[in-house]
Structure formats: structure tokens, C-alpha cells
């Protein structure tokens, strides 16, 4: 054990208190009195070996491995505070298989489990703490961290272990500073020079979190390190210090007045501790009068209270004489704490572990006389013990002889009088799942006062320190690697069009789901609007009204022709063809309604087929009427053999055959690749287009192409027959109607291909209505004009008169 630092004296008191409790408790080891012996190693390997051999020797004689005179049986050894001290002790104690309890943080060596099977660790291995630090850094999103490590073998092992863990977790070191393991006033000048060189790196504002690794001696050096800032009149650092369970406000007597404000708001993983009932009362009874039984109290008392117990030597006359009534509770907490610290609690628990193991061995009749027990015989009982301390904490070891215990996350709140408060703000449970291993209550944390003056993030009304190589990339941006810098140093790039990022510091922007699209800020996905040409849409309403109006108009024309079916103007040019054409035009206007509304399976199958076949019937009727005019004119010539072709049979054949070809194309279309309802999520930004997929585009254009072919043939025949002596010149009207029809559908193709979504449907409906209206208007409006407004012209004499005039 080491008692150079004043706070370590509490470890002695914890051991003495535990032995006192066990000896006074009749339930544990009745009629057996435990004793203890404490030796100091002075942080020296040589003294550690000597002290260990002394424990194994005959009382008052340094004769290891010999039994002579009065012999005190060493059952177990508790020590040491430092990892190297524990290794040095274990090298000798393992020869005797003597149980050894390390009460400080222990850095496991390679093969340590096999090398030292008699070693029991009261603190879980450092690896758990390192993982806890990673989780803590990620909890607060600190990715740019300064590292302090002692300039010795332990510091080397720490960096070899920690740097890969940080890198794999996306956390990087802003700098690495190696601190001396020990220092003295003679080294102060060299330390001051080094500090002036490193100061610009330490005060750099991006790295606001420092992770410190080192055992108590190097922590004392860190105090010297920070004291030098004040001595050199440099501004204080004001950072967040993160430390492992090694660390404590360990202060030597010469450092009692040194400021500890630099550590205000520090976070540490501390060994879980509780105050056993009666411990503080026991501590208050400590007096210098213990000197006969306690070889450490005089040095402790004189250094702690800066007084002398014995007669002053030359040069010490200025010091006061200790009264012996000084109060330990009056000491600064940096020198001595009344509450039991984590390391002291481990000493207390280790002593109880030995006592319970001995008690179990005694009760199991393993030994007839407990006084004859050998240290190696205690191991089976130590490995299987399980009990609760008087403070209520469970004690048992795992298969690696490690105490199954977690760590407290402690926030250190300091005050100007060098006192401090340990605030428990979380818990690290190494045996829990990765999600629940670390729990933090952010609201309880007090940060360094400097952060209240910085622009940072606010959580629960508090300022959260930021430790990043650069500012976070906000949603809508992604990280962009900067050549020559570490990965956590990056630029922010705006997300490309059509992509988004909804978290801070995303590595890459992502696409939204197909049914969503990025908002304007590109930081969220919003549902796409479902769109189709509906009756509620203004365009849908207009087209539906137009289709209904033309339908009613066609029905009216059909009614007029039916009413005047026996008049010469209706009979002329084949009355049956006129009715077929009017009915097909009526159906053309009605089929427009198949294109309005949400596409369904039935409507998708019907609308193009109905449109193609009905229009083909209409065009076939127009073609038949035109051919009828030509045949009628040729039949009037004397000796013409065309008379036999004049009649309904030819016109009906033309209508049927031309319509059949279109029907065959449509049947082939339906049997190979029929239209079906589909959704288009890509064509229009922010819209899901519900449409009819034509199935086969080639078949769709075949239907249009065939109608175009019929229209061109009809136009050509009508154009050639426009000057024939036809009654009421119907061939000329057909020519105009075909000219309108061809113009509409020639403009339809490029317009249809250049539009998207519901506007494609609008273009097709408009083309259907416009071309049908062109046929209706050009062919039937002159005849309706005569039937209704000029009935005197609708007679046979007038018909013959016009024919004769033309001839």
C-alpha cells in the first residue's frame, strides 16, 4: 500500500474499519480474530519487492521462506493501487499461491490469467472503461478529442488500445500529449517550456474535450501541469475532462492551495462506492494518539494539518505543535474525504471477501483448525463466495476472478474554496447489452463555466459543449471529405436534386421512398400527391362538360335526321351510312368519359379499344360515303358497268372490312400485352401519377396509325371527288372534315409525347373531342341548316336542279 498522497490514508482506515467490524461480528468467524499489517511501497518497484518479501518472512526478521520464532500466517494480501505494483507483488505471491486483491485499476497483461491465477481484481478491466468512454463521446457527439497519456509503458498500451477503438467509432484525436510519469520542482522549468509550446494546441476552440489516462502519480503531474498555466499567466483552459477510474483529486500537502477550477464539470468513470454504516463516525475518532498502533498517522497528521506532533527539529521552529484535536472534516476534500472513496471501498470489500471465504471454509469442516489454513486452500471458497456488504452492494467474482461491479459516471463540481461535490449522473454496466450499458442523465450535469459564454447546442435549457473538427452538417447537406485531413474534418455539400438528408452529419444523401419526395429544404421526405384526371379537377370538369355537350348535340342531329328521314337531303348519300356515322360519333364523344376518373382495370382495357374501334367505324363510314359519291357519278355515264356496284352492299362491306381490321389489331393487343392500371412515381416531381399503362406502345401506335391511314385515304378520295356533281356537295364537306381530323391527330403525337401525367390524358380527350366535333360540324351542320332553316331547298326538284346545273 502507498501512503505518499494524503488521500490514500483513507485506504488504511477502510482496512482497519473492516477488520474491526469482522472481529466484532459474532456471525462471521466467531472466536477468530483477524489481524493486518500494512507496508508502504513508495511507488518504487524495489520497495514493493522488499515489502512483499517482508510479509512472507518471520515476524521482525527478514528471512523469506523460513519458519522460525513467532510466525503470523498471511492468508491474503490486498494491493496495490497501481497496476505495476500489483504485477510486482504477484510475481512473488504467486510462488506461494497466496490470494492477492488489487484494489486499484488493473491493466491486464498478455497471458495474465495463466500467469497469476491467484490474482483477484476488485475493479473490472480497463477495456470496459474504454468502451464506456466511446459510448460517452458518442452520447454527446464529441468526435474531436485531445488525448493525454503518461509517458511510460502504461501510456503506450493505452494509445495502442484506444486509438483504433476511437477510429473505428468515427472519433479522432485532435492531439496526443504525453505527460511525465513523475516530476519534481527541478523539472518544473522543463515542463513550463513544454507547456508554452503546447499551449496553442490546448486552447484551440474546436477540441473542447480532453480524455486523460494515467495512474495517480501522473495525475499529480497533471495538477502541476495546470498549475503552471497560472504561474505563466496563461488563460485557463476551460475544457471537459474525461478520466477513468484511476483518477481522483489526489493532492500532496504542497499542492493544498492549488486551484482545482480547471476540473469543474469533469466527467469520470469512478469505482462504485457506498459509505458503510458507522464509517464516518469511525473516521472522526482518528487521533494522533494512534501513533503506537499506526505507523502512518504521524506523517499524515503533520502534512495534513501543517503542524508537528513531535519536538521540532532545527529549521522547523516556525511550525505549530499539533494539538491532537484537529478535525479531519475541516481538511479540503482534495487532501482527505470523509466519505469512503471507490478505492477505499474496494479495500473494505476485499477484506470482507477474505472473511467470508474463511467463514465458509470453517463452516464446511474443510479444516479442523482455521489457524492451520494455507493461503492456497482459500481459492475454491473465494471463487464461489457471494454476499452483500453492509452498504447493500453484492460481492462475487466472475470466471476471470474479476469483481462483478459497474462504474458510476461522476460529474465533478468544484468550488472556489477547493472543495468539490461528486454528482452521480450515470452508470456504466459492462455486463449489460450495448444499448443499456451506459445511462446518462444529461439534466444533472454541470459543465465548465466557460461554455456558458459560447454558442452551443441547448439541451434541457443547458449549454452542451461541442467538440468537433468543424461544425455539423445540418439536414439537407452531407459530409464531403477534405483531402489531407482526418475523416471527421469535412466540408458540407448540398444534397443533389431528388435526394435528402434528415440527420446531422450524414455521410451521404439518400433517395426518398418511391411514394415520397424531398421537400424544398431537402431535409425530409413528404408524401407525393396522387394525381389523375378526376371529375373534381377543373380540366376534368371542362372536358366532361364538352363531351356531354357534343354528345347531346350529336343526339339532336341524329334525332333531326330520324325525323326528316324521308326528305331528299337525308336520303341522299346513303341514309344508313349517315346513321352509322352519327351513332359512331355519339359513341366517340361518350368514350371520352372512359378517360376521366381514376384508372381501373376495366376502364384501362376498354378506353383505347373502344376509342380505336369506334373511330375506325366513323372513318370507315366517311370513306364509304365518299366512295359512294364516286361510284354514283361513274354509274350515271352511259354504258357504264359501275351500276352494279352502286348500292348498300358495297358501303356496308367497306365499313365492316375496315372496322374489322382495327378490331383485329385490338384483339391482338389484348391477347399479347393488354393495358393495365399503373403508377408513375418518377415523371412528375412530388406526384404519383395513376395512369393506364398501354402495355404495348407499339400496338397503341398501330391503332393510331391505322386510323391515320383511313383518314388519309378518306381525305384523298374526298379531295378528288370534291368537284363531282354530288347533291349538296357532301364530298367537299368530307374533305374539310378530314382535313380537320388529320390536323388534330398530326398535332396530337408530338404534344402527347411532350406531356406527362394527367395532361397526356387531357391531350388525348381533347383530340378525340376536336376530331369528332370536326366531323360532326363539317359534314352535318350544312345539312341541318337546310333541314331546319331552309326547308324549301329540301325537295327533289331542287336536288335535280342542282345536279343539272353542275352537269
Explain this structure to me?
The protein is an alpha/beta fold and 807 residues long. Among the domains are: 126-273 and 407-464, Response regulator (Rossmann fold, 3-Layer(aba) Sandwich), CATH 3.40.50; 477-525, no CATH class; 538-674 and 704-806, Rhodopsin 7-helix transmembrane proteins (Rhopdopsin 7-helix transmembrane proteins, Up-down Bundle). Helix content is 43%, strand content 13%. It has 21 helices and 26 strands. Strands 5-4-6-7-8-13-14-15 form an eight-stranded mixed beta sheet, with helices on both faces. Strands 1-2-3 form a three-stranded parallel beta sheet, with helices on both faces. The protein has a three-stranded mixed beta sheet with strand order 24-26-25. Helix 4 (112-115) links the parallel strand 2 (100-102) and strand 3 (119-121). Helix 7 (188-202) crosses helix 8 (216-231). It is rod-shaped, with a radius of gyration of 51 Å. The relative contact order is 0.07. Mean pLDDT is 82; it is low at 454-461 and 803-807.
Proportion of residues in extended strands: 5-15%
Q: Specify Rg, calculated over alpha carbons.
A: 51 Å
Count of DSSP strands: 26
Mean pLDDT: 82
Major beta-sheet overview: 8 strands, mixed
CATH topology category name of one domain: Rhopdopsin 7-helix transmembrane proteins
- Please give the CATH architecture of one domain: Up-down Bundle
Helix/sheet category: alpha/beta
* CATH class annotation of one domain: Mainly Alpha
CATH superfamily of one domain: Rhodopsin 7-helix transmembrane proteins
Flag low-confidence runs.
454-461, 803-807
Strand order of the largest sheet: 5-4-6-7-8-13-14-15
Number of helical regions: 21
The general outline is: rod-shaped
What is the distance, rounded to the nearest whole angstrom, between the alpha carbons of the first and last residues? 138 Å
Helix content: 40-55%
Amino acid at each position: 500500500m502507498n501512503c505518499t498522497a494524503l488521500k490514500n490514508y483513507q485506504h488504511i482506515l477502510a482496512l482497519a474499519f473492516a477488520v474491526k467490524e469482522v472481529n466484532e461480528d459474532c456471525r462471521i468467524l466467531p472466536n477468530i480474530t483477524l489481524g493486518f499489517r500494512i507496508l508502504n511501497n513508495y511507488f518504487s518497484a524495489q520497495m514493493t519487492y522488499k515489502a512483499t518479501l517482508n510479509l512472507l518472512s518471520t515476524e521482525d526478521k527478514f528471512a523469506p521462506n523460513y519458519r522460525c520464532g513467532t510466525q503470523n500466517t498471511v492468508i491474503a494480501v490486498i494491493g496495490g493501487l497501481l497496476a505495476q505494483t500489483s504485477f510486482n507483488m504477484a510475481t512473488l505471491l504467486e510462488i506461494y499461491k497466496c490470494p492477492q486483491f488489487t484494489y486499484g485499476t488493473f491493466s491486464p497483461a498478455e497471458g495474465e490469467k495463466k500467469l497469476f491465477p491467484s490474482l483477484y481484481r476488485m475493479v473490472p478491466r480497463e477495456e470496459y472503461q474504454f468502451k464506456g468512454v466511446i459510448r460517452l463521446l458518442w452520447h454527446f457527439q464529441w468526435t474531436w478529442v485531445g488525448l493525454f497519456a503518461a509517458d511510460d509503458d502504461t501510456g503506450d498500451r493505452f494509445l495502442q488500445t484506444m486509438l483504433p477503438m476511437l477510429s473505428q467509432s468515427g472519433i479522432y484525436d485532435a492531439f496526443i500529449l504525453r505527460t511525465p510519469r513523475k516530476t519534481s520542482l527541478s523539472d518544473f522549468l522543463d515542463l513550463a517550456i513544454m507547456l508554452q509550446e503546447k499551449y496553442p494546441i490546448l486552447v484551440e476552440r474546436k477540441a473542447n474535450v480532453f480524455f486523460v489516462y494515467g495512474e495517480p502519480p501522473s495525475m499529480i503531474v497533471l495538477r502541476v501541469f495546470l498549475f503552471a498555466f497560472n504561474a505563466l499567466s496563461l488563460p485557463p483552459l476551460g475544457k471537459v475532462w474525461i478520466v477513468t477510474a484511476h483518477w481522483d483529486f489526489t493532492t500532496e500537502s504542497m499542492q493544498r492551495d492549488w486551484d482545482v477550477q480547471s476540473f469543474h464539470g469533469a466527467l469520470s468513470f469512478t469505482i462504485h462506492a457506498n459509505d458503510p454504516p458507522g464509517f464516518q463516525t469511525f473516521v472522526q475518532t482518528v487521533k494522533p494518539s494512534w501513533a503506537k498502533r499506526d505507523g502512518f498517522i504521524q506523517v499524515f497528521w503533520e502534512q495534513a494539518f501543517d503542524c508537528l506532533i513531535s519536538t521540532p527539529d532545527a529549521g522547523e521552529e516556525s511550525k505549530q505543535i499539533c494539538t491532537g484535536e484537529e478535525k479531519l472534516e475541516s481538511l479540503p476534500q482534495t487532501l482527505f474525504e470523509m466519505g469512503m472513496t471507490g478505492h477505499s471501498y474496494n479495500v473494505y470489500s476485499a477484506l470482507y471477501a477474505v472473511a467470508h471465504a474463511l467463514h465458509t471454509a470453517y463452516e464446511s469442516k474443510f479444516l479442523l483448525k482455521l489457524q492451520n489454513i494455507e493461503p492456497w486452500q482459500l481459492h475454491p471458497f473465494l471463487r464461489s463466495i457471494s454476499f452483500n456488504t453492509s452498504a447493500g452492494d453484492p460481492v462475487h467474482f466472475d470466471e476471470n476472478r474479476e469483481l462483478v461491479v459497474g462504474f458510476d459516471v461522476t460529474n465533478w463540481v468544484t468550488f472556489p474554496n477547493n472543495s468539490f461535490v461528486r454528482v452521480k449522473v450515470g452508470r456504466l454496466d459492462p455486463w449489460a447489452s450495448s444499448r443499456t450499458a451506459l445511462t446518462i442523465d444529461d439534466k444533472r450535469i454541470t459543465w465548465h463555466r466557460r461554455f456558458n459564454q459560447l454558442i452551443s447546442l441547448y439541451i434541457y435549457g443547458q449549454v452542451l459543449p461541442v467538440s468537433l473538427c468543424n461544425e455539423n452538417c445540418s439536414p439537407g447537406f452531407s459530409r464531403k471529405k477534405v483531402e489531407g485531413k482526418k475523416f471527421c474534418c469535412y466540408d458540407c455539400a448540398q444534397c443533389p436534386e431528388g435526394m435528402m438528408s434528415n440527420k446531422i452529419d450524414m455521410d451521404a444523401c439518400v433517395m426518398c421512398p418511391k411514394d415520397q419526395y424531398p421537400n424544398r429544404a431537402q431535409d425530409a421526405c413528404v408524401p407525393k400527391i396522387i394525381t389523375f384526371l378526376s371529375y373534381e379537377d377543373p380540366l376534368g370538369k371542362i372536358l366532361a362538360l364538352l363531351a356531354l355537350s357534343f354528345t347531346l348535340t350529336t343526339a339532336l342531329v341524329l334525332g333531326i335526321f330520324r325525323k326528316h328521314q324521308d326528305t331528299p337531303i337525308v336520303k341522299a348519300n346513303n341514309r344508313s351510312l349517315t346513321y352509322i356515322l352519327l351513332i359512331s360519333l355519339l359513341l366517340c364523344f361518350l368514350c371520352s368519359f372512359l378517360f376521366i376518373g381514376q384508372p381501373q382495370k376495366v376502364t384501362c382495357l376498354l378506353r383505347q379499344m373502344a376509342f380505336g374501334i369506334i373511330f375506325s367505324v366513323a372513318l370507315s363510314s366517311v370513306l364509304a360515303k365518299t366512295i359512294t359519291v364516286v361510284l354514283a357519278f361513274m354509274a350515271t355515264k352511259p354504258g357504264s358497268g359501275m351500276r352494279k356496284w352502286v348500292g348498300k352492299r358495297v358501303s356496308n362491306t367497306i365499313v365492316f372490312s375496315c372496322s374489322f381490321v382495327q378490331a383485329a389489331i385490338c384483339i391482338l393487343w389484348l391477347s399479347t400485352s393488354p393495358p393495365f392500371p399503373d403508377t408513375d412515381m418518377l415523371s412528375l416531381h412530388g406526384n404519383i401519377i395513376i395512369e393506364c399503362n398501354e402495355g404495348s406502345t407499339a400496338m397503341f401506335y398501330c391503332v393510331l396509325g391505322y386510323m391515320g391511314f383511313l383518314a388519309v385515304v378518306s381525305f384523298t378520295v374526298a379531295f378528288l371527288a370534291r368537284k363531282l356533281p354530288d347533291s349538296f356537295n357532301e364530298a367537299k364537306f368530307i374533305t374539310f372534315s378530314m382535313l380537320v381530323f388529320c390536323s388534330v391527330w398530326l398535332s396530337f403525337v408530338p404534344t402527347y409525347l411532350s406531356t406527362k401525367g394527367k395532361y397526356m390524358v387531357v391531350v388525348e380527350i381533347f383530340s378525340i373531342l376536336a376530331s369528332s366535333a370536326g366531323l360532326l360540324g363539317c359534314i352535318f351542320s350544312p345539312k341541318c341548316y337546310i333541314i331546319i332553316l331552309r326547308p324549301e331547298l329540301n325537295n327533289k326538284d331542287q336536288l335535280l336542279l342542282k345536279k343539272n346545273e353542275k352537269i
